[in-house]
Each structure stands twice: as C-alpha cells, then as structure tokens.
Structures
1.
Amino acid sequence: MLFRMTYTGIRVKDMEESLRFYTEILGMQVIEPLESTPTTEGKVVTLRSPSSTQLLELNWYAAGSRFGPAYSNGEDLDHLAFECDDLTDAVAELARRGIEVVFRLKEIGGWNEAFVKDPNGIWIELLQSRQKPTVPG
Amino acid sequence: MLFRMTYTGIRVKDMEESLRFYTEILGMQVIEPLESTPTTEGKVVTLRSPSSTQLLELNWYAAGSRFGPAYSNGEDLDHLAFECDDLTDAVAELARRGIEVVFRLKEIGGWNEAFVKDPNGIWIELLQSRQKPTVPG
C-alpha cells in the first residue's frame, strides 16, 4: 500500500486570529477556502506560501466538539519551518508587529535561524541560508 | 518580507522506532540523511513520500537537552494527513502490523477517512478520495 503525505493539520484556538497570522504576517495564501465541517463541529482552511508546495491546514473546533478537548501545547509538534531572505529584517519586522520572539539568532549548519511563536504558542522556525551573505541589520 | 513554508518538524520519542514507522509502514523516503545536531543534543532526519512534495522532519533530543522537555501529546498538532488508494485495505494492513487504529472509516466531504496513531501518539489521518469507487473489503 502506497501512502502519500498530503498536508500538516494544526489546531488553532481562534480561527480569525490564526488566519490573520499565517496570511497577513507570514504571507500564506488560502488554497482551499474556510469552510464549516459539521461532522467535527469545526472550521477548516488550507494555506500555502507563495513559491512553496507545503500545505498547512488550520483546524478549529467549537467548544463541546468531541474533536476539541482543552487546548494544550505539546511536544509532538516540534516546529513549523519557514525560509526567508533576510532573517535579521524578518525578526525585526515580526517583533514590531507584536509577535513573540523566542530565540533571536542562532547558527545551525549552513543556516541562520530564529524562533517565534504563532498565536497558539506553536514554535515557528525562521531560516535563512548562509549561502547568501547577510548584511547585519 | 516573504516567508516560505519549508517543512513540518515533529518531535519523536525514539528515532529508530519512528523512522521505521514513517519509512517501512508509511513508505516515506529519506531525503536528508539522519544526522546528529550538537547544538540541540539531538538527531534529525527529513522524509518525503514518493510522489509527494510535503517534507516531514523527525527531531529527537537526548535526555537533558534543553530542547527536550518531558514528551507530551498536545492539541496544537491536530494531525498529519496521508492519502492512499484503498482505505479499507490500508487500515487492515496497518492494524495487522500492530498500528493502533483510532477511527475506522468515516466520510467527510468527498473523502473516506480513518485515523491511526504513530509511535509517538500523533494522529495520522488516512484519506481516500471518493471520486474513485471503492470495492468494500
């Protein structure tokens, strides 16, 4: 049997706030529009960054849905990774827009990286390849 | 600033067991080989299903690493989704191989679906489009 990974689905606490974060702050585009899912008593929307093939599904469940136990941040979702062209600028821009920055800058392998948190407390890794030289901001 | 989603990183409790699940059971292929990451006191490997572009990174951290607090299954990672050609066969095969099946079969929209758990307790959604008729198993 052949299995084909299709997308990552995260659960969000507030659909509007998360949709705003992933589209307005991180620039993702809506690939499958927001729709209600009566079976789960929830809402779902699928997103993709321009020039990326990775699909991110946002899932929201109404209070009382059996798919929606109390929200908690686990360890099983380690992080979602996003590349950017200038990490210093990116972190400064996100901080200015009120996004919580967890780690500022760090070098791992050939990458500079930083971590911020999405509105649900999910760690977002920001990556910039060190192949392209950076002018420090 | 343009951000481009690059991959989803999950944290695993036992790298060998998880690697076996995602490669031998779900058929993913190693895209970036398993390597040690001294900065995080861990190991990392990147996987992709044949004929899919979605990238899944498995992260493991040694006991005592500051990246590795006690493992817990949260609500923030809702599920990872995998398509298959025959959901009934797929569920039967996984159950036979000792994988925990959470929900057997359900219809949502144009899809049949089932849920199993990976070795870390992460929910894996199995999907089959109902566009192609299924012969019940």
Note: Residues 1-62 of chain A form a domain with the 2,3-Dihydroxybiphenyl 1,2-Dioxygenase; domain 1 fold (CATH 3.10.180.10).
2.
Amino acid sequence: MAVQMELRRIVVNELQDGHTLLLKEVDGDRCFSMVVGLFEVRSIDFRVRKEQSPRPLTHDLLNLVIEALGGELQDILISEMREQTYFARVRIRKDGEIIEVDSRPSDAIALAVTAQVPIYASEDVIEEASGA
Amino acid sequence: MAVQMELRRIVVNELQDGHTLLLKEVDGDRCFSMVVGLFEVRSIDFRVRKEQSPRPLTHDLLNLVIEALGGELQDILISEMREQTYFARVRIRKDGEIIEVDSRPSDAIALAVTAQVPIYASEDVIEEASGA
C-alpha cells in the first residue's frame, strides 16, 4: 500500500555534503528522512520556494519531455529501501496506461515538486525507515 | 544548416563558479565555448570519463523516460544565441516523427553524452559564437 507524503523540511548544508529531506505522512505523523546530493536538494528547494528560472532547468526539461511524448506525470513512489538505499519510481500516464520508470528518490521528488504531483511512499519503506 | 560538433575540452573550476565547455566542429576548425553550471559540467565530465553509477543519474533518468515513452533520442542541436544566451533543442524520434523540446545547452549536451548521440550547432550559432 502506498501512503501520501509531504516534504516537511529541507536541510541544505552549505559547508559539507549530506543534505537532508524530511518526508511526513499527509494523514499521519510518521516521517523519515533521506540524504541527497547538493544539486538535487537545491533543485527541490528552488521549486518549493516557487522561484522562477528564465530557462527550463533539468527537472523542467524532464517534465517537458514527458509532455512532448504524450505522457503526463501522475505521481512518484518511493517504493523500497535496500541496503540503506531508497528506490523510487516515476509514474507516467500515457494512453490510459501507467508507465513506471526507475529513479533515484531525489530526482523523483524534484520532478514531483516541479510538476506539482503527489509523492507516495510504500508502507514497507515507511515502516523500515521511520522505525514505526 | 547544422554542423556536427564534438566536445573538445571541459574545464571544471573547483574554486569558483563558471565552468566551461569547448565545442569544436568535427569536420573543421571552428570552435566556441560556453559557460555552464557546476552540476551540468560535472554530469558531462562524469559521462565523458565513462564512469558508472549504480543508480540512474538525472540525465540517465531523462533518457530512460524517453525510451519508456516509446521515443529515441536522435541528436541535440544548439540552435541559437540570443543576448549571450545559447538555446538548444533535444530532438526525439517517435513514430517516424521528430519531436523537438526546448532545453538549455548544458542539459542537452549532458543528455547527448549520456545517450551517445551527435551534438549539432546551427551555422548561425557557430558564426556568431566563434567569430568565424
């Protein structure tokens, strides 16, 4: 089962690598965090602040490509955790079908905040990551 | 007219922002350079060195999405320069047609080196940028 999550906190560490995203259940209190790269955290932070770029940034380009090929981003799913690594899927609706593409969660979340679609996590990930 | 280019040099400036790509004509000597961001230059450099990542990086994801939606990256074109800003197009073949998507050149070049497709520049861009 998938649970809708919201980005609760973005911690950009300017002095060293190791930036953190905190995700919290929309309809509950469980939360978990993940460490992401500087580019991804900046990209997510930029979107959350609703800043505008005169030219398409990388995750804008990704969304433009999806639309140009007749797809529509439906949502993203943080699907599993293996050996302390999170895995995600970008879920695209096209011709009435859902096409899933393997992704790092940081790219998936950056894409979700760019295209303003929901972020889900599997129940397994939440249980394992939150210790709930 | 479009001219095939090759990435001739990548200059990563670790101390300050302002990293440079040098592109040179494949069948000639004209060349021009462009300033790109740290993420993009690192992403391009990583590809050129043929380093491997255990998980799809952002431009891998872009290529995976193109393929999942039934497209195939054909090439990229640095199409014009306006007010010292380069513009590019990612050109995707799908169902016998070419779909063009507006892109920053840095993303387009990162995608081209990821998917190993040709990089083109329009004659206008080369003339204006190289001073030839």
Note: Helices of chain A lie at 38-48, 58-68, 105-115, 123-130.
